[in-house]
Amino acid sequence: MRLRLDAVSVEIDGATLVEKLSLAAAEGEVVALVGPNGSGKSTALRCVYRALRPASGAVLVDGRDITALSLRDSAQQVAALTQEAGTDLDFTVEELVALGRAPHLDGNQPLSRRERELCTEAMARLDVLHLARRGVLTLSGGERQRVLIARALVQEPSVLVLDEPTNHLDIRHQVELLALLRSAGPTVLVVLHDLNLAAAACDRVVVLSRGALVAAGPPHEVLTPELIHEVFGVRTSVVPHPLTGAPQVLYSLPTAVRTESRP
Ligand SMILES: Nc1ncnc2c1ncn2[C@@H]1O[C@H](COP(=O)(O)OP(=O)(O)OP(=O)(O)O)[C@@H](O)[C@H]1O
């Protein structure tokens, strides 16, 4: 198994934020992590990119506990797009993307031709090549998000974790990003709030509630009205997508908050 979380628990100041979370993702699989606000999704991801150390349990990449690897070795294995990933550093887009190669370089070693091509290709795939010379601080939120994803791709990780990567993205770039994640190569663990994007793009969906796993499996098995009501407290209808058959979650607003009906 490429990525495995084995009974990972996280405690901070005596509170258990994640409790005995186990999940696995095979090579090339795209797994969505969904759940209500505060259910522990970002905390679980932080253990994978080593911003947090589990109180117990382990994160394994290709069977090796990542805490046994040097930071440089684990940065070659795992790339992350985090919620804190906005950068205050005034790089150009191409400089920031090139930084994704850092875990693979010795000191100030310049990029090889192949690495420069890799950066150009990633910028093109994320539709930011035309911004290559722009300062990152001048970009819109969605443009910056796409640049950071290009940086994660040039890292050529075997595992890519992304925390709400569709934040700030317009609908075209959301759809393109999810399609890209399916074809990019690395095993992907992605936190998503949009259950329909998760259903369309992910092989499996893992649902967290109050720090613990409540369901995991293919989208059509997991995303049922009963489960969504139990976990999110929202009534939904789930119908098959007319073209793909993937489950589509339809929401209706509670009648109490509807505006009065028109004459
Ligand atoms: N450093 C910390 N100290 C104390 N509590 C924390 C800390 N970090 C996170 N928490 C709490 O842990 C819980 C889980 O947080 P986490 O960010 O993992 O949730 P999430 O599922 O990613 O939420 P969201 O959908 O809102 O991004 C929350 O209640 C949060 O307030």
From TrEMBL:
Protein name: Iron complex transport system ATP-binding protein
Gene Ontology molecular function: any one: ATP binding
SMART domains, A to Z: AAA
PROSITE patterns: ABC_TRANSPORTER_1, ABC_TRANSPORTER_2
Pfam family, one: ABC_tran
Alphabetical list of CDD domains matching this protein: ABC_Iron-Siderophores_B12_Hemin
Superkingdom, taxonomy of origin: Bacteria
UniProt cross-references to Gene3D superfamilies, sorted A to Z: P-loop containing nucleotide triphosphate hydrolases
Ranges where the ABC transporter domain occurs: 3-235
Record keywords, A-Z: ATP-binding, Nucleotide-binding, Transport
Species per Swiss-Prot/TrEMBL record: Allonocardiopsis opalescens
